[in-house]
Amino acid sequence: MSKIFVDACFGKETPYTPVWMMRQAGRYLPEYMEVRAQAGNFLNLCHDPKKACEVTLQPVNIVGVDAAILFSDILVIPDEMGMDLEFIKGEGPKFNDPIKTEADLNRLLGGEEAASKLTYVYDTIKLIKEQLADDKALIGFCGAPWTLATYMIEGEGTKTYNICKKMMYSDPELLHKILAKVTEVVKLYMEKQIQAGIDVVQIFDSWAAAIEPSKYDEFSWKYMVEIADYLKGKYPNIPIIMFPKGVPAFLDKVYGNFEVFGVDWSTPMGLAKEKLGDKYVLQGNMEPCRLYSKEATTECVEALQSIMGGKRHIFNLGHGILPDVPVENAKHFIAECHRVSKK
Question: Please, what is the angle between helix 172-196 and helix 145-154, to 10°?
Answer without folding.
Answer: 120
